[in-house]
Write a structure and sequence with these properties.
This is Cobaltochelatase subunit CobS. The protein is α/β, with parallel strands linked by helices. It contains 13 helices and eleven strands.
């Protein structure tokens, strides 16, 4: 599909029909896909409130930030909404290597008619602004200050972006959309879990029109997701095993909330544990390699107790104290 065919969405879709959410909201969508549209994950489970917040971003051009603990599927949630709308989507991780030049653009040397000439190469932001693209800033609270002030320009109501080097003002495409995900809400690394996150400028946080919070799914839905990812466990014995694994994960989350643990099991970790069970054929060994070895050694007895409660068997002492399997 060429960019000219992507000028604007060409149909309206029902939220009730497409997502099964009890809402009369109609959302613009594209009838055709292009290379920037994410692949549909049929196993993905949508949180109704967060889905409506994201859909408001697509339908009403709201700036939407999705906040939550790691592994809850924040970025994937936005991508999977976009996938079902056939909306092109570009995801940028604001790690320490992303610079202002990456976002804005820079002069580069190219060969024209056998001669070296200098040309301005647009960065991520001006490229996306001129297209019907959903731009996602991942790990938004880890961005460097110079990078964050570049982003602040496009959070304004009109969202115009000035390329000073080019003496050019870019006006956003009518169907450009902006999203972000963060582990915190700009208040810094309060729990000690997210090193590298920044205390964000409150004036910038205030420019986000909608802030949605995505928490972990109910146990039944998490079990269904793990089974969809690891179909080899979709039998009576496997479902019982996955239910016990999700129960362990839930206890680690409660332990973290109570201050007993400094880390927790995300749904991503549970899926990894289930996948490793397929490799090692031993839930205890897979548990050690997937999660226990990531824990503070002083906290491993607590985690081992959670395992014993859910599985009815003790972990080997060598597992808990960092030794090798017998």
């Amino acid at each position: 599909m060429t960019e000219s065919t992507l000028a604007k969405p060409d149909q309206m879709v029902s939220v009730r029909t497409l997502f099964g959410i009890d809402s009369d909201l109609m959302v613009p969508a594209f009838s055709e896909r292009d290379d920037h549209v994410p692949e549909i994950d049929s196993a993905y489970r949508f949180n109704p409130d967060v889905t409506l917040a994201i859909l408001a971003g697509f339908s009403r051009d709201r700036r939407v930030m999705v906040q939550g603990l790691h592994g809850t599927g924040k970025s994937t949630h936005i991508e999977q909404v976009a996938a079902r709308l056939n909306w092109p989507c570009v995801r940028v991780n604001l790690d320490g290597h992303i610079s202002r030049l990456d976002l804005v653009g820079k002069d580069t040397i190219v060969i024209r008619d056998g001669l070296q000439v200098t040309e301005f190469q647009e960065g991520i932001v001006p490229w996306a602004l001129q297209r019907p693209v959903a731009l996602i800033f991942d790990e938004y609270d880890a961005g460097r200050p110079d990078v964050m002030f570049v982003i602040q320009r496009i959070l304004e109501r009109d969202g115009k972006f000035t390329l000073l080097d080019q003496n050019r003002v870019i006006r956003p495409h009518p169907y450009f959309r902006l999203f972000a995900t963060s582990n915190t809400v700009g208040l810094g690394n309060a729990t000690g879990m997210y090193h590298g996150t920044q205390v964000l400028n409150h004036a910038q946080i205030d420019r986000w029109n909608i802030v949605a919070s995505l928490n972990y799914l109910p146990a039944e839905e998490e079990i269904a997701i793990v089974l969809a990812r690891v179909p080899g466990k979709d039998n009576e014995k496997g479902r019982k095993l996955i239910a016990a694994m999700v129960a362990v994960a839930d206890l680690t989350r409660k332990g973290f909330a109570a201050g007993d643990l400094s880390t927790l099991m995300s749904p991503r970790t549970v899926i990894t544990w289930a996948e490793n069970c397929e490799i090692f054929r031993n839930p205890s060994v897979a548990f050690r390699l997937s999660f226990l070895n990531k824990c503070d050694e002083a906290e491993r007895p607590i985690v081992a107790e959670y395992f014993q409660r859910c599985f009815g068997t003790e972990l080997e002492e060598s597992f808990i104290h960092g030794g090798e399997t017998a």
